[in-house]
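Problem statement: downstream parser choked on a complex file, so we are re-checking the raw output for the NAP run. The parser issue turned out to be on our end (a line-ending mismatch), but while we're here, posting the original submission so the record is complete.
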Amino acid sequence: MNKRKIYVYSNETSVSIKTADLLRKKLEQSGFEVPNDYDEEAELIVCIGGDGAFLQAVHLFNFPHIPFIGINTGHLGFFQEINPEQLDEFIFNYKNNKYSLQPMTTVKGLMRMVDGSEVNLKGLNEIVIRNEDTHSIHLNISIGGSFIERFSGDGIIVSTAAGSTAYNYSLGGSIVDPRIKMLQITPIAPMNTTAYRCFTSSILLPGDLTIGIMPETGKERFVVAVDGESNRYSCIKSIEICVSNTLVNLLRFEGYDFWNKVKTKFL
Ligand code: NAP
């Protein structure tokens, strides 16, 4: 009979590498196969590091349907479920099916350029559209096909519930329970004067509405960042953003509670 496969991904810090080596040994002793390279037949991906490493793994493996479990050797570790001291407990609970899956919705975007080309975007935390330098940018924003506002300021971010505790939170956006399928538009330094009028708070939308973003001139230069990975663009004609059907699943063990996690990580 083929052995059950678990893939172990780790960032490059010495504590992560040490934890990964130890975990590989323990998993093999428990009867699992631990492939050296990413294997789509694995039933679980263990991600060792912080949230940054987790986001990297999600993108590197192209938003796999295989669930993740995070081991926190990073700074904050909001996505990460266990600590390096809990490896035996993790293996015991996993083998005995003492876990649940937390599905997290993702966000996708389609960027149409003035020259007719298209760029697809996909993120777990957020999509950021912002100025390349310190000049203000102007974006016409629609929701569900209806024009809502002409945004003026540094930019906007469109975050998922999972991303609500990340950049969104630093910008004054709301923390959202990941069980809610939604998107949140949060402004970055919005201008609200007699010259420029735009919303200064976040807007929360149900998951079935599409956000339309049209740069005013098609000549402005932007930075578009997805989960921290940024690229520079000029000549963007429009960007459509909505909830993606792709889910990212995290293993959670008994006692996990989203709001308790928020309390311990933020207060
Ligand atoms: P990074 O250094 O990898 O991450 C910045 C901080 O955000 C780290 O402490 C990270 O946790 C934490 N983080 C990431 N996702 C989170 C989530 N869903 N909930 C709570 N905290 C989260 O930065 P990066 O590579 O540039 O971008 C990765 C993510 O970081 C982005 O998607 C963005 O949301 C966030 N970010 C936040 C700010 C800000 O708050 N001003 C600025 C840039 C980026 P770990 O320490 O465990 O890695």
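For whoever reads this later: Residues 106-246 form a domain with the Tumour Suppressor Smad4 fold (CATH 2.60.200.30).
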